[in-house]
Design a protein that fits this description.
With 119 residues, the chain is of the alpha+beta class. It has one domain: Chemotaxis protein chec (3-Layer(aba) Sandwich). 29% of the residues lie in helices and 31% in strands. It has 4 helices and 8 strands; from the N terminus they run ββαββααββαββ. It has a 6-stranded antiparallel sheet with strand order 1-7-8-4-3-5. The chain has a two-stranded antiparallel ribbon with strand order 2-6. A hairpin with a 2-residue loop joins β7 and β8. The longest helix is centred in the middle third of the chain and has 12 residues. The protein is globular.
Length: 119
């Protein structure tokens, strides 16, 4: 089976996104959801956030670019985990509003994380 780098889903009535079974092991450490650079969301495995993103956000305290990145990624940041039964995560209302997501979403791999966008 090939790598899953794109999938489409409909959110359920509680704004839960079902993750494909082949991606669930990658997200078993937890999931970090943030605003993206555009009108979409970023979805990081917790271990990727901890080892790759967090160190970048801890850069030079006087670097305005780093400060802007902190504001971008920490505003509305949610740490969550997959539910055990169906492999779902909940997208909080403030994040779906930011990304203009109603029900239909597209999820695309972008290196070590995914972009979640309105379809």
């Amino acid at each position: 089976m090939g790598k899953t780098d794109y999938f489409e889903r409909k959110l359920d009535d509680k704004n839960r996104l079902t993750i494909p079974p082949e991606l669930r092991d990658l997200l078993k450490s937890g999931v970090v959801l943030t605003q993206g650079f555009g009108t979409y969301l970023h979805m990081y495995p917790q271990d990727v956030w901890d080892t790759m993103v967090e160190p970048k956000l801890e850069g030079d305290i006087l670097d305005e670019r780093i400060a802007d990145l902190n504001v971008q990624f920490r505003t509305g940041k949610v740490e969550t985990s997959l539910d055990d039964k169906q492999g779902r995560i909940r997208l909080d209302g403030h994040l779906t509003a930011y990304a203009g997501i109603n029900k239909d979403v597209v999820v695309v791999a972008s290196g070590s994380y995914w972009r979640i966008m309105a379809q």
